[in-house]
Write a structure and sequence with these properties.
Layout (H helix, E strand, L loop, with lengths): L2 H11 L3 H21 L3 H10 L18 H6 L4 H9 L11 H21 L11 H9 L9 H11 L3 H13 L10 H8 L2
Helix pairs in contact: 1-3, 2-3, 2-6, 2-9, 3-5, 5-6, 6-8, 6-9
Length: 195
């Protein structure tokens, strides 16, 4: 499956902009790790794009991503991607055995958290987010309270990467696509310039 095919599949089932941005962020984070680990960048990108493709129609834990699996199989998504997508949901009890499985789990919650940190910066720019800022917000239990700090910590450990290094890797990956995520500060500039 190509990236374009995966993107089309994502947008067939996902219309909410915040879910699309989350998928783009996880794609970018997985691309970054694929490069770092010498893995198949396109396979990892497709996995990131599609990891929550069915969330809008199957928002309940007992449904997502289990009910999305037949659609992925029908569309020809590679088995390795399907396994990683299924294993990123702890409640399904599917073991994370490959580097892709572990990386998806490790970047999923953290990608959303890093975006949330950027959104509360005065600039609304990922380029103004660093490891220190993310770690400070991780300690603030009231900030993005739905994000599991334990999952972030466990994901980094399972991937075999120090937490600071992991946060830095994800920040750098998301900075590469900041305009697509509308977290490059341009929306603030447009608002203040009156255009």
């Amino acid at each position: 499956m190509t990236r374009d095919e995966a993107n089309t599949l994502l947008r067939t089932y996902t219309t909410q902009p915040h879910l699309i941005k989350h998928s783009l962020a996880v794609e970018a984070a997985l691309r970054g790790y694929a490069r770092r680990l010498g893995e198949d960048e396109e396979l990892w990108a497709v996995t990131g794009l599609l990891h929550d493709f069915d969330y809008e129609m199957h928002p309940e834990p007992h449904q997502h991503p289990a009910l999305g699996k037949p659609i992925l199989e029908e569309q020809g998504v590679p088995d390795a991607a399907i396994h990683a997508i299924q294993s990123h949901a702890d409640y399904l009890g599917i073991p994370r055995s490959s580097a892709l499985d572990k990386a998806l789990y490790a970047v999923d919650e953290l990608s959303g958290f890093v975006m949330a940190v950027a959104m509360v910066r005065p600039s609304r720019s990922l380029h103004d987010v660093d490891v220190r800022a993310v770690k400070k917000k991780l300690k603030d239990k009231a900030f993005a309270r739905a994000v599991s700090r334990d999952e972030i910590q466990h994901g980094a450990e399972d991937l075999g990467v120090a937490l600071d290094d992991h946060i830095g890797q994800v920040i750098e990956s998301l900075q590469r696509i900041a305009p697509e995520l509308e977290l490059d500060g341009t929306n603030i500039e447009r608002a203040t310039s009156g255009s």
